[in-house]
Specification:
mainly beta; Immunoglobulin-like; 2 domains; six-stranded mixed sheet; about 10% helix
Length: about 230
């Protein structure tokens, strides 16, 4: 009898240990369409200003559902939709730059995974497109950073264009909001710039991208504080 209860106790211990294993976290989905840095021309006409675009991605493991995130890069207004499928349709503005990404969700896990973020233009009536607004990478907006021994911080960004004809990036940087001081212009292959900073100061910056047609785009404003 003692041996019987001992076996039950061991089984119960094994079961309780197994139940503590965390559920597997989902993995990020691979995006398929609209393509990165492309013009999307497959939208279904909804109105003079809107078309319906179907977004597609590959299934990711340990995933029950997905959240599609689409952001208008001119207004920074997001649109989201949740689905168990690997595609979803949204009505979005014509002739407008967007970013999109997908979050993978496992209902048994408190962790989520996020795909890469891709940029595209939803086709409109124009024959030439402005560059995508530069994506400011570093310093992260709202962060506090350490300056270098030379009292400098490196500003980094990413730029892209449907027609691949960017000619320059102009950087505006100041401790005033908004920054009106242009501190330099870089060529299309240079997407970082060293700037002089002072401790205990908040700085604001943005990047204006220009292409061969003279079209421009504004990155929007980022801010950071220096230790």
């Amino acid at each position: 009898m003692k041996r019987f209860f001992l076996c039950l106790g061991v089984l119960g211990l094994l079961w309780s240990c197994g139940s503590d294993d965390p559920p597997p976290a989902p993995e990020g989905a691979n995006l398929i369409f609209p393509d990165q840095n492309s013009e999307c021309t497959t939208g279904v006409n909804v109105s003079e200003t809107l078309s319906q675009v179907t977004f597609r991605w590959q299934a990711s493991i340990h995933t029950d559902s997905y959240t599609l995130n689409v952001v208008n890069l001119e207004t920074n207004v997001p649109q989201t939709i949740s689905t168990a499928a690997t595609s979803a349709s949204l009505s979005i503005a014509k002739g407008t730059p967007y970013s999109w990404s997908v979050n993978s969700v496992n209902s048994q896990s408190d962790q989520t995974a996020t795909s890469e973020t891709w940029l595209f233009y939803n086709s409109g009536f124009q024959t030439t497109y402005a560059p995508f607004p530069a994506q400011l990478v570093n310093p992260v907006s709202g962060s506090t950073v350490q300056k270098s021994i030379a009292n400098e911080v490196v500003l980094k960004w990413m730029g892209a264009d449907v027609e691949n004809d960017i000619t320059s990036f102009e950087v505006f940087f100041s401790d005033e909001n908004p920054p009106t001081t242009s501190i330099g212009t870089t060529n299309p292959d240079t997407m970082e710039l060293n700037v002089g900073v002072t401790s205990n100061t908040v700085y604001f910056w943005k990047v204006i991208t220009t292409d061969q047609e003279g079209n421009t785009s504004d990155s929007g404003l980022f801010e950071f504080k220096v230790f």
